[in-house]
Amino acid sequence: MRKNVFLLLLAVISFTGKNIGQTVNPCGTADRYTQRVQGNPKIAEMEAKLETEIQYYYAHHEGVNGKLARTTDESDTFWYDIPVVVHVIHDYGQEYLADNDIYGVVAELNTFYALKNDVSAVVPEFKPYIGKAQI
User: Fold this and answer.
1) Is the pTM of this model over 0.70?
2) What distances in angstroms separate CA 120 from CA 65, 116, 117, 126, 132, one per listed residue?
3) Would you say 132 and 115 are in contact if contact means Cβ atoms under 8 Å apart?
4) Residue 47: is its pLDDT beyond 60?
């Protein structure tokens, strides 16, 4: 009898613990976002304005309408416009990286991918694979 009561008690504790362990809140981002917007309604206004500007850009710029992700246009005149975000990691110390330094690195990448750099040092076997990325 004691053994059955013990097993029943063990089973109840096991199932209770399992239910507690299954209540997981995977991410609080949406909740925090909602709290922030409720606390500061100007956030929603700014987001609505940004969305309007983005839709205006899509509607009024050539080459954007329906051609953001894919295109079959293979001409040399079509260019992709790729937004770039640069993350600068630092320790809040004396280091400083000027905006012009970041712009210079992005310009260097543009030069590289536009095939405006010197390709004379490329191994001849790989030269047929060099091309303009159109970005």
Assistant:
1) no
2) 38, 12, 9, 11, 16
3) yes
4) yes
